[in-house]
Design a protein that fits this description.
Length: 93
């Protein structure tokens, strides 16, 4: 997939690309164009949860999330781990 800041040049994805909201939004826009061409009732949307970029596959009306990347459970675990680390640091200081 091409990076929006690289003039469309295809290069290997990096972890930084995957966290770049512009890169993710560009990829989602391309996917949605494919869904439109197929006359599908599905679309992708980009949201942010706890500072993380999240991509959701939703029904066209946006009322039902069918799939989410990363999964909501992973986001919860990450938030809980950050909280636990904060508590440990607070107690040691």
């Amino acid at each position: 997939m091409s990076h929006p800041d690289r003039g469309g040049a295809d290069e290997a994805l990096t972890a930084q690309d995957e966290q770049d909201p512009r890169f993710v939004e560009d990829a989602v826009e391309k996917l949605n164009k494919v869904f439109e061409a197929l006359d599908s009732n599905l679309r992708y949307q980009v949201t942010s949860q706890d500072g993380h970029v999240v991509v959701q596959l939703v029904e066209q009306d946006g009322k039902k999330v069918l799939y989410q990347l990363p999964p909501e459970g992973v986001l919860k675990v990450a938030a809980e781990l950050r909280e636990m680390v904060g508590l440990i640091v607070d107690r040691k200081i």
